[in-house]
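$ ./design --mode recover --in tokens.txt
reading tokens...
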């Protein structure tokens, strides 16, 4: 199978299976047309091992090794929607986003297809290397990925219009808030045993926090890992 056949998922998933996923997301309340389009376009099967790829268009989280998971499509869609907010296309196409915990790179790819630039940090090295390869394969040239502890953010590229965190911290990471532009937005799962998806917006009177719904994410861990022994 050549590269373009692999990207298209030929012989593996029908267009109907993918369209069913999009329908399901709409039934669950995802409305943003650009987000729905992004999930329609990005081939999720490429972000999984071959043994898992046939389940790529189910609306569930799936294992990617190293005790981590590829996020559920609904969550990827919801977080993307919250990050874009009511920004008009001309606005979000110019957005600069920081993503913490890029894992397989699926969320990074979804964002990259909508916004100007994505800067992604991942603490497990082999996941980072595999995700970077997928960005190249999909010709997503507006994503930069680094093996680093996301809690420190990315000073050299700050400030960001939005920050998306894909692993749950116990407390709001203040260093990251300081890397947002005025009016910027951070979307994250917050808490340990019980977690809420939270949006933090920087307004004129400081930061405002909004709880969206209950979620379950892997914990945000400090430091970096070579991936050996995991
Ligand atoms: N959206 C990703 C989900 C990845 S799971 C996907 O769809 O594939 C969360 C990821 O956060 C894991 O890969 C984990 O290694 C990473 N992570 C946890 N703590 C981190 C930290 N401090 N800095 C960077 N990445 C972190």
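writing sequence...
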């Amino acid at each position: 199978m050549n590269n373009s056949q692999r990207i298209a998922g030929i012989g593996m998933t029908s267009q109907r299976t993918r369209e069913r996923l999009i329908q399901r997301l709409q039934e669950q309340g995802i409305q943003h047309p650009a987000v729905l389009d992004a999930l329609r376009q990005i081939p999720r099967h490429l972000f999984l091992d071959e043994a898992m790829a046939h389940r790529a268009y189910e609306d569930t989280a799936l294992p990617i090794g190293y005790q981590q998971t590829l996020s559920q499509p609904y969550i990827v869609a919801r977080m993307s929607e919250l990050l874009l907010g009511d920004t008009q296309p001309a606005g979000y196409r110019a957005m600069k986003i920081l993503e913490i915990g890029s894992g397989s790179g699926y969320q990074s790819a979804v964002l990259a297809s909508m916004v100007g630039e994505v800067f992604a940090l991942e603490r497990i090295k082999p996941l980072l290397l595999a995700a970077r390869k997928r960005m190249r394969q999909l010709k997503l040239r507006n994503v930069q990925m680094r093996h680093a502890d996301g809690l420190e953010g990315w000073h050299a590229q700050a400030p960001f219009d939005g920050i998306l965190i894909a692993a749950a911290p116990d407390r709001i990471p203040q260093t990251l808030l300081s890397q947002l532009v005025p009016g910027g937005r951070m979307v994250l799962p917050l808490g340990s045993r019980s977690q809420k998806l939270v949006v933090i917006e920087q307004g004129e009177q400081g930061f405002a926090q909004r709880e969206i719904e209950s979620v379950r994410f892997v914990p945000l861990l400090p430091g970096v890992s070579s991936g050996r022994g995991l």
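exit 0
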